[in-house]
Amino acid sequence: MTAFDASREGAIARDEADPLAGFADRFHRSDELYLDGNSLGPLSTDAHRTLERVIDEWRELGIRGWTDGDPPWFRYGEYLGDRLAPLLGVDGDEVVAANATTVNIHTLVGTFLDTIDGRPTVLIDELNFPTDGYAVRAQLRQRGFDPDERLVVVESDDGRTVDEDDVVTALETNDVDLLLLPSVLYRSGQLLDVERIATAAADAGTICGFDLAHSIGVVPHDLSNVDFAVWCSYKYLNAGPGAIAGLYVNERHFGTQPALAGWWGHEKETQFAMRSTYTPADTAGAWQIGTVPMLSAAPLEGALDIVDEAGIDAIREKSLDLTAYLIELVDEHLDDSFAVGTPRERARRGGHVAIEHPQAERLAAALAARDAVVDFRPPNVVRVCPAPLYTGYVDVWEFVATLAEIAESGAYERFDPDGTVT
User: Where exactly are the transmembrane stretches of this chain (predicted)?
Assistant: First the structure.
């Protein structure tokens, strides 16, 4: 086995051999070490191009853009759904770009709660991003149920990860009607075994949903055995702040009445007949609510051009190599006050790494002062995302070297937890 090369020269050699290295030139980056793409990806020339095209269409076509745009705006959500579907391993009719992530959780969870007779039991986990739990609880309350009585919450043994065995056991012992889990835990970066959970849910007769916010665009998926999913597009898909979100509904649920009906989910053929009776589209498009927001949707088109060109399998492979390299450098250069909170097994790791330290908030502030952009997640995580389309191995090497110097010199002690210098 070749010894691990922790030198900067070794990082340079890795970059020179990287088949995806050229994609970084298509992203607008300053001199910062930008390692926060799991919160917001940077602007690419491709996303800028499609946004400018839609602006030009608005200027030149006005309202005719709905029919004469290229592609027409009227079916733009469905067009983007067709583009997204290969990343999910499903058919285009099952995917649509629409709404915002939390809105999609509300409408899909609400939709499936309405199909359940009696008092529903819903399974979530204690480490999911808060908005998911907020929405699930709200949907239960709106139907007259006490969330404290109707929720099964899978707990974590270590505060970092969720054991799939515990999920399967909960499904087998609690008569669960619906589950909503993340594909990747936002704090630790653990990748859940979506296929295993979906199979267990199907065996238990449980409606199965996933939040893919921290996996779409960096992890390939096969959702063919999943009932529904939601995601944002401003992280690894790099579609911009507040960009249009997306949703997936398995075709076996087409025809189910959406919980939050809106005119943009009406069947397209008669949408402008302005009938008082709602006729949902016979695709995932039925879960669109309001008019597609073209200026927050257009950058996704160009961003997907890059993903398609690079290939999701190649993106995943480089992501795994980058995160493995980051973990090895942490082991090599940082002392025992640091720990890696992300699973080291490749199959259990998403696209970011959780570096744990008792002074993580101060460390993040000190890194920011040196133009190394990461984020802090309470109570003790510096979250680092070497996004594979625009991050190189030298970037990762320089980040760890900067973090090591900050820690060894005690420079972080100058920062209050809120980031101010004392």
Answer: none
Retrieve residue 369's tokens: 């002062």
Alpha-carbon span 270 to 15, nearest angstrom: 53
Q: What does the alpha-carbon distance between residue 134 and residue 93 come to, in Å, rounded to a whole number?
A: 29
| Both structure tokens of 43 | 């602007």
The amino acid at 257: Q
138-188 pLDDT per residue, tens: 999 999 999 999 999 999 999 999 999 999 999 999 999 999 999 999 999
What are the angstrom distances between the C-alpha of 279 and each of 98, 304, 314?
18, 31, 41
Phi, psi of 54 (to 5 degrees): -70, -40
- Cβ neighbors of 178 (< 8 A, separation 6 or more) are 109, 112, 113, 116, 120, 121, 122, 123, 206, 207, 208, 209
Strand 228-231 to 339-340 pairing: unpaired
Q: How far apart are CA 209 and CA 224, in angstroms?
A: 12
- Please give the CATH number for the structural domain made up of 48-308: 3.40.640.10
The architecture CATH gives domain 8-30+311-413: Alpha-Beta Complex (3.90)
The H or E element spanning position 313 is helix 312-333
Question: Is there a contact between 110 and 139 (Cβ–Cβ < 8 Å)?
Answer: yes
pTM of the model: 0.96
* C-alpha torsion sign, points 395, 233, 375, 157: negative
384-403 pLDDT, tens digit each: 999 999 999 999 999 999 99
How far apart are the C-alpha atoms of 341 and 354, rounded to whole Å?
5
